Amino acid sequence: MTGKLPFALTRDKTFYESLNEWIGDTLYDELTEKGFDCRDEQIYMSFQIEQALREKEVLFAEAGVGTGKTIAYLLPAIAYARYTGKPALISCADETLIDQLVKEEGDIRKLGEALELTIDVRLAKSRNQYLCLKRLEEMNRVGEEYAENVEDSLPDFVYGPASLSEVYPYGERSSYPDLSDGEWETINYHPIQQCGGCDLRNRCGQTIHRSEYRQASDLIICSHDFFMEHLWTKESRKRQGQLPLLPEVSMAVFDEGHLLEYAAQRALTYEVQDSTLLGLLERVMTDGVREQTLQLMEQLMECHELFFDYLSECAEEDGEERLAISKTTELVNTAREAVRLSNALLEEFVFDSELYVIPEYDLRMVEEYLEQYIFSLELFSDNAEAVDWAEDREGELTLVIMPRLVTDVLQERLFSEKLPIIFSSATLSVQNDFSFLANNLGIEHSISFSIESPYDYDEVMDLTIESLSEEGKKNRLIELLNDGEQTLVLFKSKQSMENFRSQLSEGQLAYAAFEGDRELSSIVKEFQAKKWSAFCSYHLWEGLDIPHDALTRVVIYDLPLPPADPLFNAKRSHAAAPFEEVDLPYMLLRLRQGVGRLIRTATDSGSVHILLNPEESELVPTFESIFPVAPKVKS
Q1: pLDDT tens readout for residues 195-227
Q2: Which of 390, 414, 434, 388 shows the shortest CA–CA distance to 585?
Q3: What Pfam family is a match for this entry (predicted)?
């Protein structure tokens, strides 16, 4: 039945009237007969989505855990895709949530089997989720064993004589669960790669995946990060004669939509690292390059290193992951000199390209990177509206620049179109007010609703807030984990998690898995299979779905307040009451999401423990009323 409407259209009814009837018949009768629960909340949500499709509106659909949000939006999405002839887009917070949506026991497969529908669903993961054959070759040249193992696992057609008609998608991050995040990041796609000039492009896993998902007729599922990258690059790719990363869609569903703003911020940032430019320039310092070009490259390398020496001195170490930069005259002037030298070098490369002494692929890669490098440093040195900061990434300093806050850009490129957009989550509002999210995203017109979870939380959840010293928090967490109960531990940041981990003695908590040690979705699967009794994460405050006795306790190790970093400081500078308008709403949404990891089905039960230091304990009155059960507060 692929491509056909799941109901008949008649002359006396519009598509939307017929869709409304089909949703009611399906949820009230057909699915109930197949063993699905009949949930009034789910039916209401699905009808509201039909109304948003009819009116081409933005809809905030806040529905509590147990509502059945996925099926509520899948039914109208599939029908609308087939009616319009364009696939519906479902955007998830991250790759882990994508995997949960399409897993064997997931809602898409269950719905298709129950309704006898062949649902054409295809995945469009972020580019950094795919293997880069060029970078893999580089790691093999330096003798990395993990890179050799990955190469040995590649399909025969990648380097063998197989016909291109025999190719199939390969090379996703989830295919290499034993690689650590650090190892994967040496062989995955990186923005400096010049894909357009790559001689392996036709056999590249990312290229094959893109060709495959473009043919989707019902659903394309991607991450928020990838959707935002598509949005930001759409017009520039068209100008360059390239297809946009995603095809035209009929509607968009943002699952865990409250996280869209942060994906937009990540997509709109530019990064400059110390080693990247140096490594690229060394690649093109080949025999035969003109002396004037070599001298400019050496001058640029010296200027670039001097810039990072100054940046290291000016980056303020304050315990946050994003480091504020105190811009000195020397730092700004050095950035401007690096821009001047880069422009001069690009002019010289025009002459060198005619001599063919530099491999074309390498030259194009350096030229493209220099253009971004120039744009980034010009923003840094001359644009007062840009938000910038530094980050220490595995011992390497990185300069990050965001041209402006994302509100205006989103308003212009996404919400000005008459595209039905559905935001779905258990937490979109702050005390039933959706303005915090709407204002952050630049949404001027929307419709909304909020419905509670059908679960009786008083019967299935115990929630305790404990006030402890920092040392007491650590000891209390270890005490809780030592009993072997299946526990998810949520930290406000990677730094917080690593600080806790560094205080453990060797071999302590050997039964605990930590985010980042291996591919994330593989750790989730192992935790659900009870290979680990504890899972420590800073990422999975939302979307993680582990039902039944595989997860019976959630520990929140610290309050998820936003950091005092340059990005959030920029938001605070535009607020009349920074704590009430920026910090508090962010924390409340995240707390509600974290607590929501515990109860996922009608048969779940367990406990939540929130561990607070004395300073955090002072904020208890601001959040103790937001939970589905009244907390027990221990001081």
Answers
A1: 766 788 888 988 888 888 888 999 999 999 899
A2: 434
A3: Helicase_C_2
